[in-house]
């Protein structure tokens, strides 16, 4: 979709947030020092422009939990004492905080009870440390996205808002915080903002132009804290959005009818999709997007789940995936899976688990989305004995397998209109299995000076190493694909060469013209192909070995990686997976 200037801004901000050290520390930030592991060390807290350590009096696991969570680890393994990670030197002679007592539920260490800044009776031999659970590191920290929908004048209007002078319209944000008063009615907290009718007349929601002079908006306690910034946005059309404020702002933008804000905040929300490895929040965001009719957010959720389908099928939410979500995933050609047989297997077990709640028609509707002609021939032979549902849907399987055989044997005689007619059935998805793809782990590629060792790791499919004596020709990996299930082509193995260029120096050293870096190259080495096959290949970027953050097509064998990744990644050591996709034309 086209990017408005405002979303360009957003992508710019994202690009910057990927730089590792670009973020200035803020009051109350914590960090770990004195250890080579990022998940353990001496606790230091930022206060009045300086980092200071924390005293170990009363230091225990609930304090460590808060520190680890503040650092985006999901939990703590241990709270350590007596300066096990060395003594801090940064904060004068004493510790910053002493007698820290967290309940464990706090968001930040500064929110915990303590004897106060610099008030303590200990020295640096008592510096506290933590060991966090390294496995559960969330990949993205809270970033700030500055949205600017203003044209001109906005600063001046911001001043008018801030001063509150001559305001004539009261906006009350009212919550019920859950506690009941003695008479049984829920207790409410209110926050009233005085605004200007002249501005609010621009927004029909407030009815300021038809003579109203106040309005009450119901919000929950969390969202109440963003009421000032959203009303200020009505004046300035500028707002800073973070992952933590995004849900509230999205909801308020929807309520106030602020379409542009609604959509852009939806995009910020979609950037946070990789944050949850359990897929719980992706599915609930999908449901929320459907409910609020944010189609861009809905599509982004579905796309993320399609790209990371294999992880989704292994996640706890898989069994309870909403039917219509599963249906829309299975229609997609950008579903990333080892091969089509994998899709059939996971769908069959999903249906088997949910058999009682699905009608026979619903099961058939789902099974029809399997691209049987893409299933390797040897798997088709076994289908009748291996399939969980063959006997329950005999007709469908017979027809589909027959159609697949016909394609395998006769594909070169099928006409274009016959192929088109069958929708996606003859079109590969993005297959990452053996006969379709290879992978290069870019973190193992050395840039200059050259090293003579290259390691290419097949993502999820075992690994192999290469050692070049000298000189190393290039980072090029060659691999073979077959025209998959097509029996008639079994002998026509295709040989491909795949390269990753991390920098433009890498390109020029290999004599390749790159218009930007990083870039990936995929070229076919043999040229004896039948003319009715065309390749629509893809390169996939896997971030931190965890999730696919970008998929791009090739143009003239090259794919220049777009710096505005579809889903953000904290570093650029991607695994590049090259997926070959033959299409029959
Ligand atoms: C609800 O608000 C009242 C009054 O502001 C406060 O005393 C009470 O602790 C709040 N309850 C919760 C659960 O936050
Ligand atoms: C809010 O507006 C209504 C009518 O629009 C009026 O009756 C009421 O007094 C107003 N409340 C305040 C606090 O101004
Ligand atoms: C957004 O944050 C930046 C940097 O902290 C600040 O300069 C700017 O005023 C903020 N904008 C708004 C609308 O709050
Ligand atoms: C408040 O509402 C927001 C937006 O709908 C939601 O994300 C958040 O979880 C809610 N918070 C509470 C405490 O219910
Ligand atoms: C699938 O089965 C699980 C329990 O096994 C159930 O909770 C879930 O709602 C079912 N899903 C559908 C779409 O019927």
From TrEMBL:
This is SRCR domain-containing protein. Residues 17-30 have a biased composition (Basic and acidic residues). Keywords: Disulfide bond, Signal. Transmembrane segments: none annotated. The keyword Lipid biosynthesis does not apply. GO terms for cellular component: membrane. It comes from the Eukaryota. Residues 30-133 form the SRCR domain. Pfam families: BACK, SRCR. Residues 17-41 are annotated as: Disordered. Disulfide bonds join 102-112.
């Amino acid at each position: 979709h086209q990017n408005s200037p405002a979303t360009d801004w957003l992508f710019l901000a994202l690009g910057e947030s990927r730089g590792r050290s670009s973020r200035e520390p803020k009051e109350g930030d914590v960090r770990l020092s004195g250890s080579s592991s990022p998940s353990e060390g001496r606790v230091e807290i930022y206060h009045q422009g300086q980092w200071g350590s924390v005293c170990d009096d009363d230091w225990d696991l609930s304090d460590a939990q808060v520190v680890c969570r503040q650092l985006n680890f999901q939990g703590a393994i241990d709270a350590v004492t007596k300066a096990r990670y060395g003594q801090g030197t940064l904060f004068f002679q004493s510790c910053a905080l002493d007698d820290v007592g967290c309940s464990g539920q706090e968001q930040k260490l500064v929110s915990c009870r303590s004897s106060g800044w610099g008030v303590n009776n200990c020295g640096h031999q008592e510096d506290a440390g933590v060991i966090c659970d390294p496995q559960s590191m969330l990949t993205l920290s809270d970033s700030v996205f500055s949205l600017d929908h203003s044209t001109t004048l906005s600063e001046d209007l911001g001043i008018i808002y801030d001063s509150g002078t001559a305001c004539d319209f009261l906006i009350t944000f009212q919550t019920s915080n859950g506690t009941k008063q003695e008479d049984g009615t829920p207790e409410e907290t209110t926050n009233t903002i005085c605004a200007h009718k002249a501005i609010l007349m621009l927004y029909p929601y407030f009815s300021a132009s038809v003579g109203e002079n106040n309005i009450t908006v119901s919000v929950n306690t969390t969202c109440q804290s963003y009421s000032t910034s959203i009303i200020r946005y009505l004046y300035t059309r500028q707002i800073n959005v973070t992952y933590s404020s995004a849900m509230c702002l999205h909801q308020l933008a929807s309520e106030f009818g602020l379409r542009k804000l609604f959509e852009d905040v939806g995009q910020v929300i979609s950037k946070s999709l990789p944050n949850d490895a359990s897929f719980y929040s992706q599915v609930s965001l999908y449901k929320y997007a459907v409910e609020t009719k944010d189609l861009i957010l809905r599509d982004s959720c579905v796309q993320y789940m399609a790209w990371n389908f294999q992880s989704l099928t292994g996640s706890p939410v898989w069994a309870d995936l909403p039917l219509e979500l599963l249906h829309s995933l299975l229609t997609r050609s950008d579903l990333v899976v080892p091969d089509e047989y994998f899709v059939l297997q996971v769908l069959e077990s999903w249906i088997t688990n949910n058999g009682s709640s699905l009608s026979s028609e619903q099961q058939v509707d789902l099974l029809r989305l399997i691209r049987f002609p893409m299933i390797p021939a040897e798997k088709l032979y076994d289908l009748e004995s291996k399939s969980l549902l063959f006997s329950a849907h005999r007709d469908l399987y017979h027809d589909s397998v027959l159609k697949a055989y016909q394609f395998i044997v006769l594909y070169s005689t099928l006409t274009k209109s016959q192929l088109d007619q069958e929708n996606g059935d003859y079109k590969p998805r993005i297959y990452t299995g053996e006969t379709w793809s290879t992978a290069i782990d870019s973190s193992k590629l050395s840039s200059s000076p050259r090293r003579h060792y290259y390691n290419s790791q097949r993502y999820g499919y075992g690994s192999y190493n290469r050692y070049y004596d000298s000189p190393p020709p290039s980072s090029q990996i060659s691999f073979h694909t077959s025209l998959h299930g097509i029996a008639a082509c079994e002998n026509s193995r295709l040989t491909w060469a795949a390269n990753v260029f991390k920098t433009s120096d890498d390109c020029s050293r290999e004599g390749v013209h790159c218009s930007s870096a990083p870039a990936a190259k995929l070229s076919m080495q043999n040229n004896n192909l039948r003319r009715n096959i065309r390749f629509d290949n893809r390169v996939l970027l896997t971030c931190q070995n965890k999730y696919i953050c970008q998929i791009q097509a090739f143009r003239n064998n090259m794919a220049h990686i777009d710096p505005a990744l579809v889903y953000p990644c904290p570093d650029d050591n991607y695994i590049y997976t090259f997926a070959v996709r033959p299409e029959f034309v």
